[in-house]
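Checked the freezer inventory, then went back to the computational side. Two predictions to log before the end of the day. The first one is the construct we discussed on Monday; recording sequence and tokens without edits.
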Amino acid sequence: MPNIGPFELVIVAFILLLMFGAKRIPEIARSLGTGMREFKEGITTGGEAPAPTELSRPAGTAPAETSPARETRRD
């Protein structure tokens, strides 16, 4: 397998800069890091997902009240 040197890394970085722009690269790296962290946590906890309420609303907010579903009848 060929070694990747500093010149090749500069070329790859330049191509990424041209493709995504300077503003998007940190956002992409941040989301990639978050995804890797969540994957590691999922592996170490045995795949147990957090409760749905934790995912659906930000911390410190009250849950939204829901109204019962109405049934519609077709005759």
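The second is the one RB wanted added to the comparison set:
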Amino acid sequence: MFSIGILIGLGAYLLYVMRRCGFRVAEGHVGIVTSFGAAQRNNEGSKDLRLHPPGIHLKWPWQIARSVPLMEEIIDLSGEAGARSAMARDGTVLRLDSVLRYVPVRDKLYDFVFDLQSPREHVTSLFTCLLRNEIANFNVELPAQPARNTAALARITAPPQLQQGLPGGSYANLRSERGRLNHEIRAYCQVEIGTLYGLQFSSVDLVDIRPPEELDEALNAAHHAEMEAEEAYAYAEAVAQRRVIAAMQGVEIARTKAAAAQREIAVLAQHLEELDQTDTLEMYVARRNAEVLSQARHHYVRRDR
């Protein structure tokens, strides 16, 4: 019995040793082996790590294997919990929804694995600092704005943030230049984060720029007032246009009636002239007078004194 117990213990120990001597690397990952905390390198004294491709590999029991993903990582900084706040040049505090996509650089895995204790948290914190710095120092070339009554009304009723640059202050300026802002932030992140920690940013997108509540309410009020003014103007223009068309039609009808009356008078004058030439005008007038008097109920005769 004792010998059987020894054999069982020895077999269990061998299984444990075999388990400690092997490790598996999944697809899309690479393996890094450390001996007492020191990573295996291709050249001693350099940062060129010895990487193990996907598959099963052997190691010594005291060595520790780490699997590092080389797939694209996504950090979603949007919504109420993930959005970051930043102060613009005019003091407006904006809420920024952004999405980061990056991949570790295979040749610089030493910086990514051993210089970052928590890569996602570290990248998120660094990006937040860079984003706030970029928003605070972002310069916008303001275009010339046409004079509009609705814009003037919005500036009168809006807070100071609305009265600088475009309607909406830095908020509107940043939204109008979001493409250039995205490009600058991506380049800045690649230099300040990617180069230092072995990352390649495939995309840095500002999904949305949201104003503070009071600015949002002021913008909505200004937009609502502008829409009401445009609606009132369109209605007044339609009413005026309808009246102009009605007046033009009335003039045309009056002109047609006048032309018809003129033709009727001309025809009647021609007939009367023909009657006068045949010496029957007095008879025609007497006959018409008799017809008119025969249809009347009352006759009023004027006698000169």
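For RB: The mean pLDDT is 82. Residues 35 and 62 are 7 Å apart (CA to CA). Let me know if you want it refolded.
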